[in-house]
Amino acid sequence: MIHVETLRVHEFRGVRDLTLNLNGKNFAICGPNGTGKSGIVDALEFVLSGTVSRLTGRGRGDLSIKLHAPHIDCVTPEDAWAEAVVRLSQSDKTMTIRRTVKAPNTPTLTPDTTETRKVLAYLQDHPEFALSRREVTNYVLAEPGARSKDVQELLKLDRINTLRLRFTKIARDATSAERSAAQATKTAEAAFDRALNLTAKAQTAVQVVNTQRMILGLPALSEILDDTVIIAGVAETSGQVTAIVNKAVASNDLQALREAQAIRSETTFDKERTGTVDQLKELEKDASLLNAVVRDDFLKTALDLFDGEHCPACGVPYKFDEFVSIVGAKRAKLVEVKALRERAETKLAPIVAQLVTERDMLRSVWPHAKALISVELMGTFGKWGVALSTAIESLQDFLPVDATLKTLGALPDPEDLAPLLADLEKAVNALPEPSAQNAAASMLGAAQERLNVLHTATRTEARAAKEAKVAAKVSTLYAQETEAALEAIYQKVQTRFSELYRKLNADDEDAFDAEMKQEKASLDFKVDFYKRGKFPPGAYHSEGHQDSMGLCLYLALMDHLQGRRFTFAVLDDVLMSVDTSHRREVTRMLITEFPNTQFVLTTHDPVWMKLMQTTGLVPSRNVVRFRKWSVETGPSIWLDNDVWSEIEAAVSNGDVRNAAAQLRNYLEYVAAEACQAFRAKVLYNADGRYDLGDLLEPALNRLRELYSDGIKVAETWNDAAKTDLIKARKINLESAITGASIEQWQINPAVHFNEWANFDQKDFGPVVAAYRALVALLHCPTCNALFEVTPPRGAKKHLLCNCGASNISFTRKPKPSA
């Protein structure tokens, strides 16, 4: 997609004004912690995507780009900006992106064309090109649920989890609605049965209805369906007057209410109430538990009230799955409290159910009472009903606990309603006995009213059941299909991940394998440990291996997500813990597996930085070293950062002591790398410390041997060109060794090159030039990578570089058979 040519940062984060030339190649920034490296990472992320992950997202509190992205001394937000010149991979054209903190969402594009706008839109949609070590290890060590979310966000699959959560919530709500509808149907059915005096279930509803219709001289009904009118024809029957209150129905309703209330006087109910009170009092005694219960209730309410866009408590915008994840994680920490609450609510459930039954019965009796008793008594009747409903709501709310305890201790007493019910019973009994025809018409009329309610409730329940079934099926099907699709993706990613990791650890984990498995909202990740089984990465692997796993997983994910578009990545100190022996493999992997990707790497380790140069991962001119940082000036860097330029600059300034120290340190580093690369034999030191005298001569002698072997092999193939090339290299090497007077410096190893510091400027200049020429011959002239024997163990097969321009084979031509 793009390669960054130049980056300019002005009054942004800790940078006052700085221009970096990346030249479209890999780029490294080295410096101690606190010298401003992360400011460059932030600037790259900001100019390309409009975001700064360090200032936004989960856990960032009151941080913001507009307030905290500008340099602390920057007066106006428009003066804080970043500008990048990028080259488009497909067209090889360049575009300039300039973004200010004042208007981060409206960058300036030059040129502003359809093509450049598409590129910018893609970059803004893929801010995952910037990765820190913390994010790398999160992919590996995170809990399965968090890993699933992070990986799906990286793969742009986060809407999968969002929709899964929404479908789950819809299914849960539909199931709850179905239960409520079923309860309403049950209540309506009981009321209908009482209207027909079917409490004993001696007859069916259609039998009772037909008996009453026969009394009225009406034809019988074959069945009672949703559209059946059981009072059909009653109005045309002459002389039939329907009473305001059906005596039989009123008696049945009144008896049902009394039976429901009588349950509360039984020992079982009182035992349940007492046990619930005792448990709630125990909970109330522990303030910490009580506070946790209150907190969990608040979180649960927040989930119920979340509108999909903003937190219902603070109004902060959140994505659906992000909010659910945050609140869910907080609730997960309250597992014990949730269990205690659930046990208490379980004990409360039968008490609430009993009170609801009483309320339903009371509602059936209400119309009879309204028609038969005085307005004054109805006021008392109404107050008792309100008190009952209030008690139900209080117990269902559960919190505050003290209010629940107060309600349990003072439930509306059925005895308070007893006088009213007695008066109502007298009024019902005092009703005149209707004629058979009037009684039949009245019963059918009352039953029709309740049948209408039952039909409505039944239709509502059927609709709710259908919706719940569909919602459950959709939720299940969506989960199954997405899990299958994700499994296919993760299978591809885990294969690529394992392949990359094996390249880094071929010396001891060449059979390494991994397993990624999606289960609902979790992504399980296990890795092989020396064929002892698969375990979580944090179980047995070292921190360094975990770091390299994180990098390999990120690269595998990006490979899947972007493919050929993966042309730019920022790795912010991601390999801090990788051991030295595997860093070379990391650089080789980045070079060979991602040759079209421009990596910007930061590190505080100068050895790691030198290795990136030595292996050819980063050109020498594409390394900047931050020496220090101050709030007034920002990062202080060596603009001319090539080591030879620094040494030669010191010589030019007459600072031979500094130049000598730098030269010796660099030569020791190069010699150590060369011994590793050439598989040189070094005299063993028990303390593990080696200086230049221990390393340089074995490295050079080994290269001599390799050239000699290469000449012999080339001659067996009659490859005159290759033979002449290797001979020329060997001659040049011998000449450079002589020029650097290696033997002279090795006469007295105790000197350790310290005598250099006594040279003057004229004496030391030629020494620097001689060693620079010598070191150059250890590297490929094309890619500047150190020559290396492959494989690193066993019989040597090649001496080659990263680009392949230099390749000396050690495989002899087979002799012809006799």
Main sheet specs: 6 strands, mixed
Beta-strand level of the residues, as a percent range? Answer: 5-15%
Distance, first to last CA: 58 Å
**What's the CATH C level of the domain at 1-125 and 567-641?**
Alpha Beta
The CATH topology of the domain at 1-125 and 567-641 is given as Rossmann fold
pLDDT under 50 segments (min length 5)?
743-752
Radius of gyration: 42 Å
Please bin the fraction of helical residues. Answer: 55-70%
Domain RecF/RecN/SMC N-terminal: 4-615
InterPro entries: P-loop_NTPase, RecF/RecN/SMC_N
Protein name: AAA family ATPase
Organism: Gluconobacter oxydans
Describe it.
With 818 residues, this protein is an alpha+beta fold. Among the domains are: 1-125 and 567-641, Rossmann fold; 653-809, no CATH class. 57% of the residues lie in helices and 11% in strands. It is built from 26 helices and 17 strands. A 6-stranded mixed beta sheet has the order 7-11-12-3-13-14, sandwiched between helices. Strand 8 (514-519) and strand 9 (522-528) form a beta hairpin. It is elongated and about 135 Å long. This is AAA family ATPase. InterPro entries: P-loop_NTPase, RecF/RecN/SMC_N. One of its GO terms (biological process) is DNA synthesis involved in DNA repair. It comes from Gluconobacter oxydans. Residues 4-615 form the RecF/RecN/SMC N-terminal domain.
